[in-house]
Amino acid sequence: MSLDRRAALIRGGAALAAALAPFADGVDRVLAAGDDAALLTTLTLLEDTAVQVLTSVGPDLTRAPLPGLAQSFLTHHRDHRAALLSAIRDLRATPPRTGQPHPDALPSSPGEAAALAALLEIEGRLLGAQYAALAALERQSLRVRVASIFGVDARHAAVWRSAGGQNPVPTSFVTGQ
Amino acid sequence: MQQPRPTRRSLLRAAGVAAGGAALGACGGSPAGTGTGSTPRPQDVVRVLDLVLVAEHAVIHAYTVGLPLLGSVTTPLATAFRQNHVDHRDRLAQVISGLGGTPTPARESYDLGTPPADEGTMTSLAATLEEQSARAHFAALRQLDDPIVAQLLASIMGDEAQHSAVLRTVLQQDPAPASFVTT
What percent of chain A has pLDDT over 70? Predict the structure, then answer.
């Protein structure tokens, strides 16, 4: 293993731990960076969290065109979760239970501003975890699959930032930071 | 050796070549790269990275010529996006040089097809080029087996996908029309 790759795995493990910590038990899963099934499990749980957040805060998004975008992005996250679950099964590993509550990811107050903040938070955690996984996954085919999800979640983040009055593209490189 | 003059058509062809290579890879071919499990072939990585570098040159040129056509809403966006592409260009050139290659330098101009005449056509052109450039980076990523290079290409692809989303919003189009990036 090259030093670059070893360093990337260490960085990836730390980033994934940070991404997952508030939302799931079993943070130790992410310490197995280099274990593709464990990495995909982490990403699946985060997509599952995004599904729950969008389902929960969608009704708080009332300005056009946000309601329609929320519905469309919810479909994307469901598709991402399904693709990751399929990839885990392809590895003959046991997929995680989805559809579990993730109360820590939900806003504590109602309203569009809080909803947008929660959506930006989960999209940022997703992007950070996916970015880290890209350097940590052993299988090239899985890196491609994660990258195809990463590009779409990056779009979501830009849309939510713009809706919240923030710079939609604040950096030249998307890393989830 | 005299290099052919790159045009928008040739950029699309280059992206198509990358996508075709990726498709071959999916059918059992080996991706190029320096990752574990493959023979290190830095020259192949350089070739693929240079293709996306040329795409960055063309997008930078398009923004440079189109900026005077833009209005108060789109000018700040285009100015920022152009700078993002300059950063991509510099990073890609740095990696190519680090691998022992010679980055293709930017030309004075690129054929962008029908020149944009107003804000609407310039915004449409920028949205199209951003979409194509993001897909070219994804196609390149599919061809390479080095996780560090894949991570870099994905981080650039994500940025350009964000540009596309913002410009599509300006054009009142769906900012994220699909669940997955494809070539």
Answer: 81
Instruction: Among A51, A140, A152, A162, pick the best mutation site for testing chain B contact (most B Cβ within 10 A).
Output: A140
Answer whether residue B3 shows pLDDT above 60: no
- Residue contact A174–B36, C-beta within 8 A: no
Looking at the complex, does the CB of residue A167 fall below 8 Å from at least one CB of chain B?
A: yes
* Contacts (Cβ under 8 Å, ≥6 apart) of B114: B121
Per-chain mean pLDDT for chain B: 83
CB contact under 8 A, A152 and B148: no
Residue A136 has pLDDT above 90, yes or no: yes
Longest dimension (CA), chain B: 52
Question: Cβ of B148 and A73 within 8 Å?
Answer: no
Round to whole Å and give the CA distance between B92 and B105: 12
Whether the CB-CB separation of A102 and A23 falls below 8 Å is answered with yes
Burial of A98-131, coded b for 16+ CB within 10 Å and e otherwise, reads beeebeebbbeeeeeeebbebbbbbbbbbbbbbb
Tokens of B159: 């940025």
pLDDT digits (tens, 9 = 90+) for B90-119: 999 999 999 999 999 999 999 988 889 999
Structure tokens at B3: 């290099």
Looking at this predicted complex, what is its ipTM?
Answer: 0.85
Distance CA B151, CA A136 (A): 10
| Type and span of the H or E element at B121 | helix B119-143
Nearest CB among A69, A80, A151 relative to B134 is that of A151
Using CB atoms, pick whichever of B157, B159, B179 lies closest to residue A169: B159
pLDDT value for A101: 87
Q: Which of A63, A72, A169, A177 best tests the B interface by mutation, with the highest count of B CBs <10 A?
A: A169
Mean pLDDT of all residues in A144-172: 98
Contacts with A162 from chain B: Cβ below 8 Å? 166, 169
